[in-house]
Design goal:
207 residues; 3-stranded antiparallel β-sheet; 3 helices; 8 strands
């Protein structure tokens, strides 16, 4: 067979006219290809012998007569996953709401909080608006003579942030443990409570 009509012994395809021996239709020398190995035949043709790797996986047969099934606390596992999803869901929804303007609404609400105290009354006002819509506005003037209890409240998060809430209860509120007004995060909460108590006592003595 001539160089002009060389054919591949493996597939019978034309290797190209005038291609130098050791190349396949202008492809660089196949001897550098990995993992193939270049093999020359008696007619000057070329072929590749592909290396094959065989992996054996050792399997161990289980003796069912001696095996036992490990118990799983499935109900508690389901509950655990549900709590995980709930926490993630609350976080995602919370982040979404913050991005949609709730963060600004909270800042505006905090800026709207006003507490004033004089010798006869306590004035409390607040406003909450979202996307320019006022959802809640309250202004209360609470006579000191009607205040029956001042309760300091602090939960885990407030404790972590060293904040307090003062709940103000009045006579005739109509509901047990109902706060007529709430003072959120006042500076010096304990001192403020004592100051309000002194103002109440002073007002009572004056009357």
């Amino acid at each position: 067979m001539s160089d002009a009509t060389r054919r591949c012994p493996a597939c019978g395809g034309d290797l190209g006219m005038g291609a130098p021996q050791g190349t396949v239709s202008g492809v660089p020398d196949a001897g550098v290809r990995d993992p193939g190995q270049l093999i020359g035949d008696e007619q000057g043709g070329v072929a590749y012998q592909q290396a094959s790797q065989v992996k054996t996986v050792e399997t161990i047969a289980m003796d069912e007569s001696t095996a036992f099934e490990i118990p799983i606390q499935r109900d508690r596992l389901v509950r655990y996953r549900e709590i995980q999803l709930l926490i993630v869901g609350i976080y995602v929804i919370g982040r979404l709401l913050l991005e949609l303007g709730l963060s600004k609404a909270i800042r505006d609400w905090a800026a709207s909080l006003t507490y004033r105290l004089n010798d006869s009354a306590l004035f409390v006002s607040s406003c909450f608006a979202l996307w320019g819509i006022v959802l809640y506005r309250a202004e209360k003037t609470i006579p000191l003579a009607k205040i029956t209890d001042l309760r300091l409240v602090q939960g885990p998060i407030l404790s972590r942030m060293n904040l307090w809430i003062i709940q103000i209860q009045t006579a005739g509120a109509g509901r047990t443990n109902y706060a007529e007004a709430t003072l959120y995060a006042p500076e010096g909460a304990h001192e403020l409570r004592e100051q309000i108590v002194r103002a109440i006592n002073k007002n009572a003595n004056r009357e």
